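Sanity check

After download, print the first record. It should look like this:
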Amino acid sequence: MLPYLTIVLFAVLEGEIYYSKVCADAIAGTLSWIGVWCAGALGGSLGDQFWFYLLRGRIHWLDRYPKLAKYRDRVSAHVHAHEALMVLAGRFLPGLRTAIPAACAYANVHPLKFSCLNLVRGFAWAVAIMLFVKRVSTPLGPAGLTRGLGPRIPPL
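Expected structure tokens:
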């Protein structure tokens, strides 16, 4: 149970590096792949949920600055026009992982919609990383690199 809680924690805090390592462990058979997948997905989703709910209703202090306030309606309109795509793609855009939940909070995206889409993207992200690690480690087998090295090559 502890390894999976650690996966959740690191997925909340950091993302790909530790998750890639535990995906390699799952591929090697030392961890359950379904447990790794679920823990990674939940941790990734929790991290994004944290920023969304922390900033929801609190980020409007930016309106006190006239230069920023004049962009509020335009930002909100843009977020609402593309909110599903933004939420779904956000986990795959490392530089925008905090910015997208913040923009969704600023634009008052419905919490249930954000949470559901965020959970879907968490599972999609987790399986994409796992499949990538599997794909990278498989061709290394004929070269004799699967014993300890091959499945441990991170995808980044």
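If your output differs, re-run the checksum step. Summary of this record's structure: Residues 121 and 153 are 24 Å apart (CA to CA).
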